[in-house]
Amino acid sequence: MKTILVIGNGMVGYKFCEKFVAKAEASNYKLIVFGEEPRPAYDRVHLSEYFADQNAERLSMAPRSWYEENGIELITNERVTDIHRKNKTITTISDAEYAYDYLILATGSSAFVPPIPKIEKEGIFVYRTIEDLDATLAYAAKLKAQGGNKKAAILGGGLLGLEAGKAILDMDLSASVVEFAPRLMPRQLDGDASKVLQGKLEDLGIEILLNKGTQKILGDTAISGMDFGNGDILEVDMLLVSAGIRPRDELAKTCGLEVGTRGGILVTNDMKTSDENIFAIGECALLNQMIYGLVAPGYDMAGVAVAQIIGEEASMPTEIDMSTKLKLSGIDVASFGDALNEKKEGESIVYENKFQGVYKKIVVSKDGKSLLGGILVGDASDYSMLHQIFLNGLAIPENPEDLILGSRGGEGASFGSVLDLPDEAVVCSCESVTKGAICCKVEEGVDTLKGLAAATKVTTGCGGCKPMVQDLLDETLKAAGKIVKQNICEHFDYSRQELFDIITMKGIKSYDEMLDKHGKGNGCEICKPALASLFASIYNETANKQEVIQDSNDRFLANIQRNGTYSVVPRVAGGEITPKQLIVIGQIAEKYDLYTKITGGQRIDMFGARLDELPKIWKDLIDEGFESGHAYGKSLRTVKSCVGSTWCRYGMDESVSFAIEVENRYKGIRSPHKFKGGVSGCIRECAEARCKDFGMIAVEGGWNLYVGGNGGANPRHAELLAEKIDNATVVKYVDRFLMFYIKTALPLQRTAAWLEKLDGGIEYLKNVVINDSLGICEDLDKEMATLVDTYKCEWKEAIENIEIQNRYSHFVNSEEIDSNLNFVPLREQKMPELWEA
Amino acid sequence: MSALLEKYFTTNVDEVKVWFKAAPIDKFPENGGACVKYKEKQIAIFNFTREGKWYACQNLCPHKMEMVLSRGMIGDDCGTPKVACPLHKKTFSLESGENLNGELDAIAVYPVKVEEGFVYLGFSE
């Protein structure tokens, strides 16, 4: 049994352990790990998230139990003080001695604190460990307690510094980033890219100061300002230093290992130091005269050291990829290859859009045949593919600008397919997983993203490879002929669109008929609501008709809530409501003891109605002139509006009137998923129409019509379908857009996702609904007209029919109510008892 | 809450001591379910018309302990008859009670018989 000591339990030290125990030979070795910090290794890359929730657990790479389960002895809070190379032992701060066969130095780095006079004053922190963050948070809290507007500065406009900037802002302090260089992220960005990023950060409220060399720190005991010389002074109450890193090489130095002149433990590309039994990996190692401050090369080094110890061949490549992609306070920033064209081997192509804050640059070889590097700010969606083209030296389009501008006019994407990547292309750089390894798993039968993550660890690191892995999965399956057909479930070998066509062409009237003639088995919770939606879209039948195939909410025409009670939402078209209607809603809510809340769609939701109460509540509402709001349906929810020109002094048109008209037009229409509208009376856009499935904004000369927007988990701005059109034209185009969506989307696909997947995107859609390129507009118009003309309020239908009302009892053999329902008080109202964890 | 769960355990036909006359068959929609009260128990009964069969199980979904399974959609998973909870679409076999799409504990299932237009539930106590 040989012993390996690992000094340092950071991300790279942990990765060494993980990679080591995965090897069969691991059982021949004893692994002992020393960590200087109190807790096991955590994810330093996402350190700024700690500011948000102070949840150290969430950042943890693995719990202590993981080390135990893998036979690793983990000793934290214990600094190693000496290495005795002659007798191959180490001693720790508590004078314990350990012998080793191999020693791994994964000591990482410390924050570099520039030698500025008085930098040791109170209120100055570095940004490196969870303890640093705790100290910073405590000081910030102390400052805030003093009241007044407190100000913090960050020294260093690099990657970490900018992340810290947002964290400072979130602490309610004003933030200034102070950078010595003339631009932000000087290692990754050029001047123009930096300007775009600067603009975006300033929009967030972060002040950016460039070209500032700090001469002196001001203040008595605590910092009160920074002096940049020549009377240029910045007053601050706190300073976060994030000016780079210094390798932790002191142990190596004192035991006589070779170190670089500017620090770092000298290693060769097999990660061995000048002592062949000692390896150095991660940010403490000096390889090719470079310190690699990114996690991916650190992980690779860990892998090389593991292989070397167990006698496998492995070494670090001569060129190490330093590409990065990150989200800085929600702003995409990416840089890859020779982004700054420092080698002068290429020419650059630049796209800059100051309106949208987007900057894209690629460096292309002088012969125009290969991609050497690039920068993306504001929109890094093309990063994965560009990075792969760069890494693998793939051919680039004849017009290299297509890489960042997309192919304009021509057919097809400018990138080609992900399947064109060579098998050895590294798709996940955190875990070094190649395209070949991913596709191989898919061919073996793994057919979900989750399955791939479990089998290969892809997407489990930074997660940046997710879109590409998804594409690889889809394309590989497609190539194997597997999901060319998007069958909705095991009971129907058809896609939703095919089912739509079958029902219309064969005149199928019920779910059972459809299942008998065109499906198999007894159906399920996927195909039943999907077909219910189709029957509704085609025949405009209400959810009352085939009640047992309706989704949970449609079955009882109400939204089922946490404890199995329901909420009730009457329609308030356009959000316009009279005082009398408000009073009535209040009275009804009081009568049935319902919790009330204003919804996001400008109406009123009443919660906590028992199943048996629903018909009674609706009878009361309908008697007062209300109708169903379809809040429970995959159908039109609301058309939100601002007050518009009837009251607003900026209004260009009557947004409320138009919203009411449109909401009443589309109410009740069932669709693949819910959809929402918005109408704004001017470009101030108070109705937030551009995050709706369809939105209208009044401009000089008419309405601008936008479609395919979404809020929710994946916000997407709606895209412009037509400009300066009149009300009738808006309605005509929305009719066609909705009908086309209803007929062609996948089950539960919102218009945003549908438009995203639509070949040709918005331009194609314009052709279909405006230019009638498919020759289907007449049909679409007719179908929509039928739906609009046959609307009926399904709650009115329900309360007029005793059989339907009979569905609304908790027990069929008793008048009793469900005794399992328990409510607790909440701010003068009530809520259901909390669920057990 | 676990006290709620303890009331329910799967009962086999040969263990039945009481056949409880639950309700007339027309109280149960075709290919759908409804809830019946028996002493302190809530039982979901499903009229699986497509197969000409009846099934019964606890109304309590063991995921979040709510009395809702009778309002769920029924269907089959590769031939196994199942119900999907209306809250989070957890699915359970109507034959064995097993959770088909997760790791939840099985739900209790009960024998059902239909005689002279009435649905009867079998209990062992």
Task: Pick out its properties.
heterodimer; A: 837 residues; alpha/beta; FAD/NAD(P)-binding domain; Arc Repressor Mutant, subunit A; 5 domains; five-stranded parallel β-sheet; 27 helices; 20% strand; globular; B: 125 residues; mainly beta; Rieske Iron-sulfur Protein; four-stranded antiparallel β-sheet; 1 helix; 4% helix; 46% strand
Kindly describe this structure:
The complex is a heterodimer of chains A (837) and B (125). By secondary structure, chain A is α/β, with parallel strands linked by helices. Chain A folds into five domains: 174 residues, 3-Layer(bba) Sandwich (FAD/NAD(P)-binding domain), CATH 3.50.50.60; 120 residues, FAD/NAD(P)-binding domain (3-Layer(bba) Sandwich), CATH 3.50.50; 68 residues, Arc Repressor Mutant, subunit A, CATH 1.10.10; 60 residues, no CATH class; 174 residues, Sulfite Reductase Hemoprotein, domain 1, CATH 3.30.413. Chain A has a five-stranded parallel β-sheet with strand order 3-2-1-7-19. In chain A, strands 9-16-10-11-12 form a five-stranded parallel β-sheet. Chain A is globular and about 95 Å long. The two termini of chain A are 45 Å apart. About 1% of the residues of chain A have low confidence. With 125 residues, chain B is mainly β. Chain B has one domain: Rieske [2Fe-2S] iron-sulphur domain (Rieske Iron-sulfur Protein), CATH 2.102.10. Chain B is 4% helix and 46% strand. Chain B has a four-stranded antiparallel β-sheet, with no helix packed on it. The two termini of chain B are 22 Å apart. The model of chain B has no long low-confidence stretch (mean pLDDT 92). The interface between A and B is large, with 35 and 40 residues.
